Amino acid sequence: MNLLVSFLIAFTTISPVWPIGPNPLPGDPFVIVNKQTNEVAFIDDGIVQEVYKAATGKNAELTPEGMFTVTVKAINPYYRKKDIQGGAPNNPLGTRWIGFDALDTDGRTYGIHGTNQPWSIGLYISEGCIRLNNEDVEKLFDNVPIGTKVFITNQSSSFEQIAKEKRAIP
């Protein structure tokens, strides 16, 4: 019994898949949101794989900055605030939800999601989430597992520089 407990403690503290461990490790999937450029970068295998145009908060405080963890993913997410079913054309969350644990939330408050307002991409317009075009969030959704780290910043550094600082690129 003590061997099992020791294993579980060791696994949860050093495992690269455990959300509170030393993630990201070089090569792990990693997402960077830069509010200054309204862009989202997907890093995998130590390389910036994709950069997407995004929309972020109406003001700098609405989209929180820091390192977060993806905790929830949903296809055709339900929009609780206005009771709009997932997949409905008037659903502002679009076709995918990638929720993360910003400000001690459970991944259902802040997220990277699609939009039914593609004209809004590139603007400072959201209530705090990160909006992508539906086709972009669908690609990202397929490549981002639960536990992926999301770093949100507002700086002029390149995605490569930020990823190196955060150990996502060797």
Automatic annotation (TrEMBL):
One of its GO terms (biological process) is cell wall organization. Gene3D superfamilies: L,D-transpeptidase catalytic domain-like (2.40.440.10). Residues 29-153 form the L,D-TPase catalytic domain. Its EC number is 2.-.-.-. It holds the Pfam family YkuD. Pathway: Cell wall biogenesis; peptidoglycan biosynthesis; Glycan biosynthesis. One of its GO terms (molecular function) is transferase activity. The keyword Isomerase does not apply. Keywords: Cell shape, Cell wall biogenesis/degradation, Hydrolase, Peptidoglycan synthesis, Transferase. The active site is at H113 (proton donor/acceptor), C129 (nucleophile). It comes from the Bacteria. It is an enzyme of class 2 (transferase). One of its GO terms (cellular component) is extracellular region. PROSITE patterns: LD_TPASE. Belongs to the YkuD family. This is Putative L,D-transpeptidase YqjB. It comes from Caldibacillus thermoamylovorans.
